[in-house]
Amino acid sequence: MNYLLPTFLTLVHLTFVIGVVLHIIRSKPQTGVALAWLFLVALLPIIGVVIYLLIGERRVNPERLKRLEQLHIGHLKFCEATTSQGLSNVDWSKHPAAAEGMDQLGRLSANSPTVHGSTCEMLSETEVIFHRLKQDIDAAKSSLLLEFYIWNEGGLADEILQSVIDAAKRGVSCRVLIDAMGARSWWKGDQPQTMRDAGVQVLQAWPVGIFRSFFGRTDLRMHRKIVVIDGEIAWTGSMNLVDPKYFKADSGVGEWVDAMTRIQGTAVAQLAVTMASDWLLECEETADEIIASADLSLGTPNGEADIQIIRSGPGSTSDALLQMLLALINAATETLTLTTPYFVPDDSLLRAIRGAAGRGVQVKMILPAIVDSLMTRYASQSYYDDLLEMGVEIHLYEAGLLHTKSILVDNKMAMFGTVNLDMRSIWLNQEVAMFVYDTGFAADLHALQSSYLADSKMLNPETWKARSSRTQLLESTFRLASPLL
Hints:
The protein is of the alpha/beta class. The chain contains 19 helices and 19 strands.
């Protein structure tokens, strides 16, 4: 009798392990991800199985998945209208040869054509960003669409709150969509209700809860940052609605350093339809209602930049964003500069960066000297050896937590948006990225990246090799978990 309970528990564990292992194999995830999960499930009795069932797949609630499929059909119609109106007729002769191929890739993988005729203004000083954004909101006449991963009380963010409230009071249609988990402390405060009382429509993106976890992953997050004013002006980039002086001030990483772009022209509609789709996912409102009240249209050309908006996330695209990132990196012939706060790449992304350096491209990676996640910090550092041995320059930014996400190729093509170069951004989060084919924007991004380099210290390969064995062990250990971060 003393042996019955342990034997029974062992059989239960083996049954669950075998079932999960077979499911992982049938799901065909990346090899590294599959092995990491197999190791965890086998190592931790019952607990490993539970963790896998909770966060092991991009599992979306069936009802939400059905809604996503309906919104995908709407997005297809929008892209078809864009093409039929001639807004995607780009003069590719003025761009590098690879640009037209990237356009084709984006059309096939994400149903997103490049549109011609936009202006894209780069802003990188926090006070200037908030001031200009507040000006635009204060000037709004008909509609405001705002979506962010985080909204944090305090400082300049409160001024934006008041501007949105004032806009609603003067009759502007205002919709605010904020991620449920990213801004969980904000949702517990008074500001959401204060906006609602003023007539602002406020919704949580991807709500969380114990009951919801049985039907889909609750760590799938809406990581986009988009503002659209009157259907004529759009903002996107890396900055959440937080004043760095009031956000994670005790984290020991310094103030967060971000950049945003202010856009006019045809690309505005691409960002507006992205935010509108996210909004419609969370409510019963119809597409016609939001189009009418938000003054959404295909827009008219206004500027020289050709921009391709790629949105990604569970239920919308599979690997479209990763494919576009790889195509951009592989297009580099002279220079490649990347900035990201979190660098935990999959094998293909790591190989593309190493390959660029190996074929003679000058590759510079600008990363924060310290990030706010201990596990991510060590996992990221574990890739430095792979980069350094191929001649990649690693520059560690020391003036705060560099949060800007950007890639610049040959000072001619660029990626700028919300996506980190880690597997969470690429596979789990809802992200939005602009692929910009314009030398003017490239020059602005080059200037911004150069300012980051001025506040960075280049990592010396010999010094790096001399780090302690304990540090190397921690890096190797957390690297094993990198597919799960």
